[in-house]
Amino acid sequence: MQWQYLNGEIVPAPQASISTLDLAVTHGRALVETFAARRGRVFRLDRHYERVCHGAQVLALAVPLELSDLETAVCNVLDCNGITDARLRLTVTAGGDGAGPATILSARPLADYPAELYERGMRATVASVRRNETSPLSRVKSAAGLLDGLIARQRAQEAGFDEAVMLNTRGLVAEATVANIFVVKDDRVATPAVALGALPGVTRGAVLDLAREAGLNAGEGEVTLSEIRAADEAFLTNAIMGVMPLTRLEGGAIGDGRPGPISGRLRRAYRDAAGR
Amino acid sequence: MQWQYLNGEIVPAPQASISTLDLAVTHGRALVETFAARRGRVFRLDRHYERVCHGAQVLALAVPLELSDLETAVCNVLDCNGITDARLRLTVTAGGDGAGPATILSARPLADYPAELYERGMRATVASVRRNETSPLSRVKSAAGLLDGLIARQRAQEAGFDEAVMLNTRGLVAEATVANIFVVKDDRVATPAVALGALPGVTRGAVLDLAREAGLNAGEGEVTLSEIRAADEAFLTNAIMGVMPLTRLEGGAIGDGRPGPISGRLRRAYRDAAGR
Predict the structure, then answer these.
(1) What is the pTM of this model?
(2) Residues B17-57: pLDDT tens digits?
(3) I need a labelling partner for B56 at 20 to 30 A (CA). Which of A248, B38, B230, B248 fits?
């Protein structure tokens, strides 16, 4: 039996429900956060919570729990499901029309990406779907905003790739479909700015911090497809996979086509910090 | 008490609910149709149903009812709510993870736009949010896809406008936030093509048909902001407001700043056809 946190209670997941009047159902007004627990601990849970609070302003909804409530919810949902390593998913809905907002936290056993994938690195195509950086939703992790990326990723996987690079409306690199993207060239570590369509990923922020702490010249800016092709290294980040090397783009090798030393260094630094 | 159709049953709306495991909640995988019943009849309900079936392919979900089921559902939900003139909203969710898909049909008393608004025409600004015509979701009416338009419309209304014109990623006109847009110049009636980011509106299709039947040179194509400014007339269409004159853009008059003769003719033709 899978258990869910729903509005302060732990309930059997198959029986958990929300009102059909909730604007999450009718208008996609719901925020989403995905994060990993390892040995019962979530890395930078406070940043995930902050992102929900920022997104709530954009979607004009209320966040009906405090950070301490979220911490308790994480403990309880892990306990009830009898797991310590989990992929957690928080959904905060707008409610509406007499229906109160709903807060849902689900936990599934964490399936780490296979070690061989980190050793060969991911292979990406370029998505035909652009990321719309003109929309305030591009800076928010919403149920609505996930769909373009999921469709793009499915198309990429059907074509034999692991991921897809998404460009923004101006043709600059924004991010991958479910991950942020970094390029390394001559010891400069760069990732597309949020204003260019990158989701402000919590792992992205942590990796920028770790890179700077390691003395690297790391920052946000404009990244082009040509720069990925000409990079020494590239890698992807999200809360589930941490730092994943990106070694090929549309059939061409990035650098020597193998995971590079800076990707490896940041991957280990992230694993140490995030507890995996 | 408001009543809803939910999966073949008529239930009290405040008690209607769907599973928190439904991908509609977690990933915005839900299709939406909005249409008006007048004297118990919905104009071109078959086209709304066809659009759901097309959208279902894009969102990879199943449509769990036939057109005849939808017709019955419309009758039942109008009956139970004791109304014949209604704004109806159909939501079809993806279900998922053990949860079946949900079909929801709600009915609210129809509030027509005030007659004075048709007499002066709407005033639009230009939205800063672009419409992403590179996304397959731009051709589908999904809960997720409504949000950008609703945010843009709210900003427009806060700035004292009725509506906002949305451009696509190339800077061409796509549509308004909750309506399609038409321009009239020298008896040519044009509306942006679906490939340019226009939602394939059922009312848009009906107005194109009516314009052609009236002997006008009507069709899809590229429309620029300059063309709206230089047009003889412009108007907006959706299933609730029918044909609404658009008389000002960003403070400048379109034509002589008053509803034009072709807008008036098509508005009457649509009212006759749609039963209002």
Answers:
(1) 0.93
(2) 999 999 999 888 999 999 999 999 999 999 999 999 999 99
(3) B38
* Per-residue model confidence as pLDDT tens digits over B92-137: 999 987 888 999 999 999 998 999 999 999 999 999 999 999 999 9
Q: How far is CA A92 from CA A44, A53, A79, in A?
A: 19, 10, 21
Q: Which one, of B215, B89, B20, lies nearest residue A105 by Cα?
A: B20
Contacting residues for B272 by C-beta, under 8 A, at least 6 apart: none
B138: left (phi over 0), alpha (psi -120 to 50) or beta: alpha
pLDDT digits (tens, 9 = 90+) for B203-226: 999 999 999 999 999 999 999 999
Radius of gyration of chain A (CA): 19
Q: List CB contacts (< 8 A) between B16 and chain A.
A: 19-21
How does DSSP assign B210-260, residue by residue?
A: HHHHTT-EEEEE---HHHHHT-SEEEEEETTTEEEEEEEETTEESTTSS--
All residues of chain B having their beta carbon less than 8 Å from the beta carbon of residue A92 are none
Alpha-carbon gap, residue A194 to A240, rounded angstroms: 20
CA separation for the pair B276, B274 (Å, rounded): 6
Q: Rounded to an integer, what distance in angstroms lies between the CA atom of residue B198 and that of residue B252?
A: 24
- Secondary structure of chain A: what % helix, strand, coil (to 5)? 35, 30, 35
- In the stretch 94-123 of chain A, residues with CB closer than 8 A to chain B read 98-99, 102, 104, 106
Q: What is the pLDDT of residues B229-266, one digit of tens each?
A: 999 999 999 999 999 999 999 989 999 999 999 999 99
Residue B105, both tokens? 């049909």
Compute how many other C-beta atoms are within 10 angstroms of the C-beta atom of residue A12.
12
Give the chain B residue nearest A128 (alpha carbons).
B134
| pLDDT, position A276 | 64
Q: Which helix (H) or strand (E) is A235 found in, with range?
A: strand A233-238
Instruction: Kindly state the tokens that stand for A147.
Output: 């769909």
Q: Chain A residue with minimal CA distance to B103? A: A20
A contacts of B169 (beta carbons < 8 Å) = 130, 132, 169
In terms of DSSP bridges, do strands A242-249 and A252-253 run parallel, antiparallel, or are they unpaired? antiparallel
Q: Is the ipTM of this complex over 0.95?
A: no
DSSP, residue by residue, B5-34:
EETTEEEEGGG-EEETTSHHHHH--EEEEE
d(C-alpha A194, C-alpha B42), whole Å: 44
